[in-house]
TrEMBL record:
<dbReference type="GO" id="GO:0016787">
    <property type="term" value="F:hydrolase activity"/>
</dbReference>
<keyword id="KW-0378">Hydrolase</keyword>
<dbReference type="InterPro" id="IPR050266">
    <property type="entry name" value="AB_hydrolase_sf"/>
</dbReference>
<feature type="domain" description="AB hydrolase-1">
    <location>
        <begin position="41"/>
        <end position="139"/>
    </location>
</feature>
<dbReference type="Pfam" id="PF00561">
    <property type="entry name" value="Abhydrolase_1"/>
</dbReference>
<dbReference type="InterPro" id="IPR029058">
    <property type="entry name" value="AB_hydrolase_fold"/>
</dbReference>
<dbReference type="InterPro" id="IPR000073">
    <property type="entry name" value="AB_hydrolase_1"/>
</dbReference>
<protein>
    <submittedName>
        <fullName>Alpha/beta hydrolase</fullName>
    </submittedName>
</protein>
Length: 338
């Protein structure tokens, strides 16, 4: 059952440094950047597309009081290398597994935002025995709907457009539109500053190419092309928390309720007034929520026998429910085959 609490914007102190400077390890020949702090049961924070581990920095100190916190820069993002490589969701899940192997971490509570939520779900699907809990924040992979901005960036010529935005003064019209959206108090206007920050974080052709390759692995001109709805019933027994802002201009809050319905036993928390980055809008509440969720749930007790039983039984529900799910799958047009 979703709980909607009064929206009271709060911020962590601006001088609260994470104490988790970037570290680097080479995995499969590529340099991977990550942050790590604290000791105890592991929490892995996975950022969204075009973002980096820096998005979690204000949250790390409190989580690190009782946990080992790991926040990687996904390949092609932040300070990690940006090769011409496979940037699919499944490849990222494998990369997360390999980084954890290098660090000697066996099990984690996964916290994934947006595209990172899709990576977290894929990791839980591929390696359920290594996941204690899932926290999915404004996660991708639920339905085809996504902001037209990202659909547009998936089109041919996007790399040139992004490079032109780097020219002096070229971004002024875009920022004028952003200011107008904020003035009109639209959902996208609420998220626009963070989205513009992602564009500013693409300093060269390699970063832009990695961003577009990653985006095109999950989005085309019609919307999201990867769904988790067809297999999320396998998460039964996995403690799962869904967090969403009801003013999300990137992925609509309707996706939160769809995911909640499709994931047996999941918990849904809506942040009124928040956009696509609820952990930025109200980090204090977000931290309290995550800590309370971890403290109130036992790590998943996964077994291969249970997984086989769920897989053989297929998706639960009556015919009407299954028909509705099938309709949503067809709307998505394409599905992940991994």
């Amino acid at each position: 059952m979703a709980r909607i609490l009064p929206f009271q914007p709060r911020r962590l102190p601006t001088d609260d440094e994470s104490g988790a400077a970037l570290r680097f390890r080479t995995v499969h020949g590529y340099r991977r950047a990550y942050r790590v702090a604290g000791e105890g049961p592991a929490i892995l924070l996975i950022h969204g597309i075009g973002d980096s581990s820096a998005t979690w920095s204000p949250l790390i100190p409190q989580l690190a009081r009782t946990h080992m916190v790991i926040a990687p820069d996904l390949l092609g993002h932040g300070a990690s290398e940006k090769p011409r490589a496979d940037y699919s969701v499944a490849a990222y899940a494998n990369g997360v597994r390999d980084l954890l192997g290098v660090l000697g971490v066996e099990r984690v509570t996964l916290v994934g935002h947006s595209f990172g939520g899709g990576v977290a779900m894929q990791f839980a699907y591929q390696f359920p025995e290594r996941v204690d809990r899932l926290v999915l924040v404004s996660t991708g992979g639920v339905g085809p709907q996504v902001t037209p901005v990202l659909r547009g960036v998936s089109l041919p010529g996007a790399a040139l457009l992004l490079s032109l935005l780097g020219l002096p003064g070229a971004d002024l019209p875009v920022r004028a539109v952003v200011a107008l959206l904020r003035l009109l108090d639209t959902g996208l206007g609420r998220d626009a500053p963070e989205l513009m920050g992602l564009v500013d974080a693409l300093p060269d052709v390699w970063a832009r190419a990695a961003f577009i390759r990653t985006l095109r692995s999950v989005v085309d001109w019609r919307g999201q092309v990867v769904t988790m709805l067809d297999r999320c019933y396998l998460a039964q027994g996995m403690p799962t928390l869904l967090v969403w802002g009801d003013r999300d201009g990137v992925l609509p809050v309707d996706h939160a309720f769809t995911a909640h319905e499709a994931m047996p036993g999941s918990r849904l928390e809506i942040f009124p007034g928040a956009g696509h980055f609820p952990f930025h809008t109200d980090p204090v509440r977000f931290l309290s929520l995550v800590e309370e969720f971890i403290g109130a749930t036992e790590p998943a007790n996964w077994s291969i026998d249970q997984w086989w039983r769920l897989l053989r039984a297929g998706r639960p529900g009556d015919d009407a429910y299954i028909d509705e799910m099938e309709r949503r799958y067809r709307e998505a047009s394409e599905r992940s085959a991994t």
